[in-house]
């Protein structure tokens, strides 16, 4: 299939009229109609319904249109990257961070190593809640992203595991649990538990609530932290206690203490994610480097 067929097809689909599409493309209308007929013959189905005052996409045509727009956008992006290289410009990679990963020392160390390994790449950081971040990945407005699982939306993107991040209990320094090495979930019933809003991470929020309910706890009196990583600050301010991933407890004030939870069934996992159809060389390079560096960091 010739790419010019796709460009002609997309233009007709957007103009919904052969004559207007031909004018926009700068060609005569009869040759344009012939090219569209050839495309329909090649795919084996009608792509347009001919109307008295124009055309409309058939269901099959709508499917091809959605994919053709993405294909042409990727091609245009590839051409721009080639021109950048020819001009001696640095490659750009948009690197997304779920809000709960941006303060993780392990994530930041991996980013530092990625930048050292690829000085030719200009990394552009973007921080978003997990659902919004996955959507930007799907639309390829972000090239790679650090996500925290479980995340319902993550099934729509590819990802490689980086490290597990078990949950820990954070309590005020003067709390009775502060001097204990570990506790069980059932012991937490007397304290208000600080949670994060469900809309910033529905999968993780539901998994945490299910873990609490499994221990007979109903967090109906929970306070809400603006973000997962801000729950520890609310503990320090005296709002209650919090269960947070271990990577968020490495640089806390002396006003709080971190305690292990013996029977915590939930383990969060930090992953590096990308859109499955994103085959950009710079993206594949960074995925390969990240895997290598994670192995080195774990050894």
Automatic annotation (TrEMBL):
InterPro entries: LysR_HTH_N (IPR000847), LysR_subst-bd (IPR005119), WH-like_DNA-bd_sf (IPR036388), WH_DNA-bd_sf (IPR036390). Residues 1-58 form the HTH lysR-type domain. This is LysR family transcriptional regulator. Keywords: DNA-binding, Transcription, Transcription regulation. It comes from the Bacteria. It holds the Pfam family LysR_substrate. Belongs to the LysR transcriptional regulatory family. It comes from Salinivibrio proteolyticus.
């Amino acid at each position: 299939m010739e790419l010019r067929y796709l460009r002609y097809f997309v233009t007709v689909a957007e103009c919904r009229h052969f004559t207007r599409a031909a004018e926009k493309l700068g060609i005569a209308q009869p040759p344009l109609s012939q090219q569209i007929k050839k495309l329909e013959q090649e795919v084996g189905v009608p792509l347009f319904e001919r109307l008295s005052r124009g055309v409309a996409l058939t269901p099959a045509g709508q499917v091809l249109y959605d994919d053709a727009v993405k294909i042409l956008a990727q091609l245009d992006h590839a051409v721009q990257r080639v021109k950048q290289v020819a001009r001696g410009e640095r490659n750009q990679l948009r690197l997304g961070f779920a809000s709960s990963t941006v303060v993780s020392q392990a994530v930041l160390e991996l980013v530092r190593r990625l930048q050292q390994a690829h000085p030719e790449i200009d990394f552009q950081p973007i921080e978003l809640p997990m659902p919004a971040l996955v959507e930007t990945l799907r639309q390829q407005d972000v090239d790679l992203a650090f996500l925290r699982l479980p995340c319902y939306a993550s099934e729509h993107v590819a990802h490689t595991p980086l490290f597990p991040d078990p949950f820990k209990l954070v309590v005020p320094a003067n709390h009775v649990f502060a001097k204990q090495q570990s506790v069980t979930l059932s012991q937490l019933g007397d304290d208000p538990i600080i949670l994060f809003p469900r809309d910033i991470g529905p999968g993780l929020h539901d998994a945490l609530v299910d873990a609490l309910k499994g221990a007979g706890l109903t967090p109906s009196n929970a306070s809400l932290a603006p973000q997962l990583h801000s729950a520890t600050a609310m503990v320090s301010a005296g709002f209650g206690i919090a269960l947070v991933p271990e990577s968020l407890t490495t640089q806390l004030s002396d006003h709080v203490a971190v305690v292990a939870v013996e029977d915590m069934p939930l383990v969060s996992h930090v992953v590096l994610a990308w859109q499955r159809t994103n085959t950009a060389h710079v993206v594949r390079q960074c995925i390969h480097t990240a895997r290598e560096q994670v192995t080195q960091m774990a050894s």
